[in-house]
Structures are given as structure tokens and as C-alpha cells.
Specification:
This protein is an alpha/beta fold. The protein is 37% helix and 15% strand. The strands form 2 sheets. The chain has a 7-stranded mixed sheet, sandwiched between helices. A 5-stranded mixed sheet has the order 8-9-12-11-10. The chain is globular, with a radius of gyration of 21 Å. The termini are far apart. The relative contact order is 0.13. The structure holds ligand P1T.
């Protein structure tokens, strides 16, 4: 089945009791049992819920995986993955990644004895150097948030397989429409569903998709045992969002390209970070592993003072200044003071997250209107 058909149909079938075409919101915490242990497959909604089940099946199909699990947020999904590890285990991670991921690694799990190495994963030699006999997991985010670096998923998976190290990919920026990490050899794919999968900035949710049955069993155990599950109303909203994922992503990519090119030619702009440019250092990898280049763009100003970035951000009218990304509406953000403020300044600046860096989540509006807004904000 092709992607668009999967997006509309995968995981959902008419409700067996009424024939409802849309999966109902099973707003219930518990289910009646005929006799202890004799029930219809559902006992308690932390453990299973039919609306959540439909979403989990849909997400698994979209990632071409066997099992899907959803969580109360992207960070709750990351939390479950790191809980697969034990004190003393080591993780190698991209050094440019969402600030909240860095924060849970450093400020939560380091306290439990897990060791994290943050490296430049665009250079496979760096990964080889960081691997030890204690390495259990390689954490990839690609494209990275906010610098739009691209990591070669297949190359990292090949290297990891030699030492039987698990690979997890945060696929939030690309979505399964643009990139399917399990097909490239990854063991785990993770999402902040809050973003493109939900697509309408009305839900906070996370997801994990895997192929391996044992890994799924352990993660499902953690989902139930730790309890960070989303409610059925949110599962319904994401099921609805997913039905247009392919259409939305095509428009995000098209608008992204138009805006990246506009920014590149604007006199007030210094650098534009977008993997679709042939001069992007990892463009060839992006072209190999992604169907298109997405609608996330970061750029710096020639005037590299914090105040200059703030002045631009305050002038936007259509682009709303807000955390998050991946909704139908365009957003702008200031990583250094917003999404990546939890990363120490000197660490952040090593990867290029300067005070003048602005991040855009380009929505699905008419590109001409977005360009007009950019002209007003940047001048000229
Ligand atoms: O916000 P939450 O659903 O918990 O997801 C966390 C997360 C994980 N991975 C990536 C790549 C992310 O971008 C995020 C959340 N990011 C933002 C809120 C942001 O504005 O970048």
C-alpha cells in the first residue's frame, strides 16, 4: 500500500459495535469483566484503550514497523527508551538536538548512572572513537533541531550492528513520509507526535515504533508500568491529523523551499540552514535518505546581536513567536532563549546555536503571504 492510502486507512476499521467509520473516542478508564480475567481484551485504560490501539497500529504502519506505542509526550517516549538501560550503560548521541532531550539525558538519567557522549555524528570516525564495550545505544536526531544537520542513518546502523549496539532515531522533523529509519536498519524510531504527526498544534504526545517483539514487550511494559499514556481524545485528534500527513508534508516542503531560497537571497540574512540546498554539508545524505527536505529552516542575521534577532521576531505577523513546530500554521522561534535554553551557552554555541539564530516552522499557508511577512520582519 502506498503512503497516502496508509495515512488514510492504516490501523483504522469501522467500529465493530456500531459501524462508525471514524474510530470512536473510548472515553473510559475501565472495562467490565464477566468474571475475574474474563473480558473482551481490555481491562484498564493505562494498559489498553481501543482509540489508542488504532493510533498505535496506524503509526506502526506508517513507519513500516510491527509495533507502535504512544506516550503522553515526546519526552515520555524518550524516557521509556532510556529506561531500557542500566546504570553504567553508555549512550552516544548527536551533539545538536532538541534542548529537552539534552536536558532529560544530562539532568535526569546521568543522575541514575547512565553516561552520555554528545558527538558530531556527521563524522562516522567520531562515533567509532566514542564506542566502548559499555555502549548500548546510539541516539540519532536527523535533521537536527535546530541546526538542520543530517546524519547518515544507514551508515550509523551498519557501524552499530558490528558491536550489537541499538540505534534509536528521533524522526520528528522528517516524519515517516520523508524518512523511514527502520527500513535503514534502526531498532527504534521515536516521535514527538506533538509536531507534524498531530499537525494542528492541539495535542502533546510521543510515539515509539519498533520491529522486534522482545523490544516491544519491554517498552509496552514500561508504558504501562510507568504510566505516561495519552488519553483517547488526544489519540482521536492524532488519528485525524495523520489522514492528511502526506498532503501537509508536500506543502510544508514546497513552502520550505520557497522560503529557504528567499532567505538565502536576503541582504540582512547571514547563513540559512536547510538540507535542501546543494551547498548544505550533508545534502547528499539528505537526498539519499529523505524523500524531500521538509519545512524547518534556521537562519542567522548579519547583525549577530541578540537584540537584532528579537527585533525581527517581534515584527512578524503571520509567523507566530512560539515553541513547537510542525503545525499547519507558521511559527518562528529563538532557540537560544526558548527551545534550547536548557543547553549551556558554550555547549550550544559549539554547534552553531548563536544568539542571532532564528528557527522557522514553515506552515501550509500561501507562500506569497509568508514571504510578505518575512519582508516586513527583515526589512526590504
Ligand atoms: O514536546 P514533546 O512532545 O515532549 O517532544 C519533545 C521533542 C523531542 N524531539 C524533538 C526533535 C523535538 O523537537 C521535541 C520538542 N520540540 C519542541 C517543543 C521545539 O519547539 O523544538
Amino acid at each position: 500500500m502506498k503512503f497516502g492510502t496508509q495515512a488514510v486507512h492504516a490501523g483504522v476499521s469501522p467500529d465493530p459495535s456500531t459501524g462508525a467509520i471514524m474510530t470512536p473516542i473510548y472515553q473510559t478508564s475501565t472495562y467490565v469483566q464477566e468474571s475475574p480475567g474474563k473480558h473482551k481484551g481490555y481491562e484498564y485504560s493505562r494498559t489498553q484503550n481501543p482509540t489508542r490501539d488504532a493510533l498505535q497500529h496506524s503509526l506502526a504502519a506508517l513507519e513500516n514497523g510491527k509495533h507502535g506505542l504512544v506516550f503522553a509526550s515526546g519526552l515520555a517516549a524518550i524516557d521509556a527508551i532510556i529506561k531500557l538501560l542500566k546504570p553504567g550503560d553508555e549512550v552516544i548521541s548527536t551533539n545538536d538536538l532538541y534542548g529537552g532531550t539534552y536536558r532529560i539525558f544530562k539532568k535526569v538519567f546521568e543522575g541514575f548512572g547512565i553516561v552520555f557522549h554528545f558527538i558530531n555524528m556527521q563524522d562516522t570516525a567520531e562515533i567509532e572513537k566514542a564506542v566502548s564495550e559499555k555502549t548500548r545505544l546510539i541516539w540519532i536526531e536527523t535533521p537536527t533541531n535546530p541546526m538542520m544537520n543530517v546524519v547518515d542513518i544507514a551508515a550509523v546502523c551498519q557501524l552499530a550492528a558490528k558491536s550489537k549496539i541499538m540505534v534509536a532515531v528521533d524522526n520528528t522533523f522528517a516524519t515517516p513520509y520523508l524518512q523511514r529509519p527502520l527500513d535503514m536498519g534502526a531498532d527504534i524510531v521515536m516521535h514527538s507526535v506533538t509536531k507534524y504527526l498531530g499537525g494542528h498544534s492541539d495535542v502533546v504526545m510521543g510515539a515509539i515504533v519498533v520491529n522486534d517483539n522482545v523490544l516491544h514487550e519491554r517498552l509496552a511494559f514500561l508504558q504501562n508500568a510507568c504510566g505516561a499514556v495519552p488519553g483517547p481524545q488526544d489519540a482521536f485528534l492524532v488519528l485525524r491529523g495523520i489522514k492528511t500527513l502526506h498532503l501537509r508534508m508536500d506543502r510544508h516542503c514546497l513552502n520550505g523551499k520557497i522560503i529557504a531560497e528567499f532567505l538565502r537571497s536576503h541582504p540582512a540574512v547571514d547563513k540559512v540552514y536547510w538540507p535542501g540546498f546543494s551547498e548544505h554539508p550533508n545534502h547528499h545524505i539528505a537526498a539519499k535518505q529523505m524523500k524531500d527536505f521538509g519545512g524547518m529552516i534556521s537562519f542567522t542575521l548579519k547583525d549577530d546581536r541578540l537584540e537584532a534577532a528579537f527585533a525581527v521576531l517581534e515584527k512578524f505577523e503571520l509567523f507566530s513567536l512560539a515553541e513547537s513546530l510542525g503545525g499547519v500554521e507558521s511559527l518562528c522561534g529563538h532557540p537560544a532563549s526558548m527551545t534550547h535554553a536548557s543547553i549551556p551557552k558554550e555547549e550550544r554555541e559549539k554547534t552553531g546555536v548563536k544568539d542571532s539564530l532564528i528557527r522557522l516552522s514553515v506552515g501550509i499557508e500561501d507562500a506569497e503571504d509568508l514571504i510578505e511577512d518575512l519582508k516586513k520582519a527583515l526589512g526590504g
